[in-house]
Each structure stands twice: as structure tokens, then as C-alpha cells.
Amino acid sequence: MADMRIFSYLPNPRLWKATIAARMCGVEIEIRGAKPAELKDWLWDFEARPLSDADLAGGAPAATEGRVGFKGGLLVKTPAFLDAHPFGTVPAAFSGDGTVGIFESNSIMRTVARLGAAQCQLYGGDAYEASRIDSFLDASLVFARDSQIYLLALREPDFPAHVHARAAEAFAIYLAGIDQALKPARAFLVGDTLSLADICFVAEICLFSNERLRHTSLIERGLAPVLSKDWPSQFPRAAAHFDRLALHPAFAPDVGPYLSKLTGREK
């Protein structure tokens, strides 16, 4: 039995917060999921799986309206899933036996770090370091909220321009903070070793990199891409930190293929 099971849409860079931490901490994670458009045809449960004809013929165990990102139809969620995940969102993590649900990617990552603390201290060496890590994770939530709204809006050709402006502001604030934290030549965001703060930073930038698929349409609308080619010159320490961590053995299995695929599809 794995230490943790996670159900999510795939690929999901925010899921990597847990998988990267797990590689470093020696924690075993089982992942179940499918592409976002396919999750409406799944049973949302600890035993998540594609819905069968028998499931549909016998009546769904539970169904709720799809939320942002899963529009168009009902999502089939069991009562046990909603008991474990009261907000009904993914990624949805469970303890190995399925009795406890953990939601939100930063909290899932923290759980992995706690489970593997004996092997690797990713959550700080004392209460002050742990709290400073939490400060970075909390700051990432503001950026994550605006970036998710923006990335979903980019699917529509006529999305409101103010969504772009808000994402640009959130990006600049977040990256400026990261860049400042790495001055004058710090190797990591907190303390002298890699922590959850570094992992979270890389995952959030990877997710935002999906904007690259819409650069052409942005320019056609007279909007400058937020993740422009010159962002490394604007935030040199943050960019160098990202590039360095992307090559780390715990990061590379997730980050490398994902960014390579984005580059291949970039318009």
C-alpha cells in the first residue's frame, strides 16, 4: 500500500509539489487520473476510475455540477469522496488506507514532507524556518489564484483584458519577492538547503508556462505575454533558480518532459 494516493487531472504541475517532495523524502505515492476533459467520465472516489456502463446503468453514487475547469455536465462523486474532500476539488489526496482526505496542493506537499521528515528535512529545521516556508507558500496562493483564472480565460479568444492585467501584476509581485529573497547570492529561498518553498516556486512557474501556447493570440490582441522572453532579465535570480532546480534529479522527471512538450507545441 502506498503512503498516499492522489486523484487529479493530468498532467498537473501543482501535483509535482508532492511528487518532487516524495522523491526526496522516500515517500511512495500512487497517482490516478486522466486529462481534464476526461474526468467527467470518472468516478471521483478513493478508488477513482473511469465510469463503466454498469455504473451508469445502476445510477451514479452521487453527482454534483461541474465547477471551473470541468464545465459541461455532471461530475460523479461518491459520498465518501465528498466526506474526505468537502470542497470537491482536485488534486485530491488520501492517506494510504483512504480514511483521511487532504486537499490543496501546498497542503498535500506538506503532508509528504511530514511523512518523510526522517529522511529529508524539506519543512525547515525549526519552527522559525517552517514558518518562513509557510510564508512563501501562502504568498504563492495569491499568485496561483490569479494565474489559474488567467490560464483558463486564455482558452477563450475574447477574454477580458483586465484578467491579463491582473495576472501580469500578480506575476510581477510574486517574482519580485522570489528575486529579493535570493539576494545577494542565496542558493535557496529558506535556509541553506532545498525546501518546500523552492519546490512550490518551480511548480507554479511550470504551470504558468502554459501561457506560451497562447503567445501568438495574445500578440494579435495587442497584449504582451506575461511570461515573456525577457523575464530572466527582469528577475535574474528567480530565473536562474528555476533553471538550476529544473535540472535537479528530483525535479527533472516532471519538469523536463513537460517543458519540452510545451516548447514543441508553442505557437
Mind explaining what this structure looks like?
The chain contains 11 helices and 8 strands. The protein is α/β, with parallel strands linked by helices and 267 residues long. Helix 1 packs antiparallel against helix 7, helix 5 packs antiparallel against helix 6 and helix 5 packs parallel to helix 7. The longest helix has 27 residues. It has a 4-stranded mixed β-sheet. A 4-stranded mixed β-sheet has the order 4-3-6-5.
Question: Key features?
Answer:
alpha/beta, 267 residues, four-stranded mixed beta sheet, 48% helix
Detail the topology: elements first, then pairings:
Blueprint lengths: L3 E6 L6 H10 L3 E6 L7 E3 L4 E2 L2 H6 L4 E3 L8 E4 L1 H6 L7 E4 L5 E3 L1 H11 L11 H27 L7 H21 L14 H13 L6 H6 L10 H4 L1 H11 L5 H14 L2
Parallel strand pairs: 1-2, 3-6
Antiparallel strand pairs: 1-7, 3-4, 5-6, 7-8
